[in-house]
Amino acid sequence: MLHSCCRVHFSDGTYSIKGNRVHSHLILTDGECIFDRTALKAGSKEQSQCLLIVLDEFDLFAHTGKQSLLYTLFDTAQAGLTPLCVIGITSRYDVEDLLEKRVLSRFSRRKFYLHSGISFDSYVQVLIDFLSYDKGDDESSQGDAACWNTAVKQFAHDPSVRRQVQLLYDTNRSFRALQRLGMHALAGSSASNPFPTHANLFKGVVQQKKDSKTTMILSLSILELSLIIAMSNVIVDQDRESCNFEITYEAYRKFLLTANASGGGESYSKPVC
């Protein structure tokens, strides 16, 4: 499965199984596709063929809505009424932390760690090959290509660059992540300094490691931060999994009463919030 939308997940997956008869097994409710489980559970272990579903880039499926696809597949497999096997492939070790509780509870937790046999020097060579310029048959660009490729090799063998590549090699060994690392080094190039440098690479690494939620919080107003703090207090103090705006605003109002009693705090009316 190659899609990032749950609706397309179900439609494409069911089409692969049932062909043109897919539409009779697809239910649409509130804009969300729910695969008709009776279509899977109608068979038996003795007569039905085993169904093998492989989810490549498994971590991307954990970022889709309510993780409906994963929940449906895991729940059907756990029921044991149909011979179904779901295999997820990912390069992230922390993928379990991305799963919702209802999905994680149906996960068999059978994990196999496969490590790439590529050596570190070969991994660095992949970066060099990615950034190098293919001279081809164009004789007019032979000199520029040789100059660029020499600069790329010097860049790849820079101790600072090798430390960053070593860190990626020890934790991930993903070629896609290695290419992103190389693109960061190129993104800071200019006419005065056209070659990749470790300084540009380091800026890209820092940018890549930024937490999007933390960045978003830094841009919030005092009122928005106050509401987030009030919501967090409600969830922690009352042991809730979620809360609505009414509960959050009531906690915010009580917080303001305490703050005003101490001589500080700015109050906002409910319509403003």
How does this structure look, described?
The protein has 273 residues and is mostly helical. It is built from 13 helices and four strands. The chain has helices at residues 6-18, 38-41, 58-61, 68-79, 101-104, 120-131, 142-156, 159-171, 175-187, 198-208, 212-218, 222-237, 245-261; strands spanning 26-29, 32-35, 51-56, 84-89. The strands form two sheets. It has a two-stranded antiparallel ribbon with strand order 1-2. Strands 3-4 form a two-stranded parallel ribbon. The longest helix is centred in the last third of the chain and has 17 residues, at 245-261. The radius of gyration is 26 Å and the shape is flat.
Spell out the helices and strands N to C.
HEEHEHHEHHHHHHHHH
* Biggest β-sheet strands, sense, barrel: 2 strands, antiparallel
The overall pLDDT average reads 76
Task: Note the beta-strand portion.
Answer: 5-15%
In the sheet with the most strands, the strands line up as: 1-2
What are the low-pLDDT stretches, counting only 5+ consecutive residues below 50? 20-35
Tell me the radius of gyration: 26 Å
Class computed from helices, strands and strand pairing:
mainly alpha
Shape: flat
Number of strands: 4
Distance from N terminus to C terminus (CA atoms, Å) equals: 42 Å
How helix-rich are the residues, as a percent range?
Answer: 40-55%
Give the number of helices: 13
List the helices and strands and how they pair.
Blueprint: H1 6-18, E1 26-29, E2 32-35, H2 38-41, E3 51-56, H3 58-61, H4 68-79, E4 84-89, H5 101-104, H6 120-131, H7 142-156, H8 159-171, H9 175-187, H10 198-208, H11 212-218, H12 222-237, H13 245-261
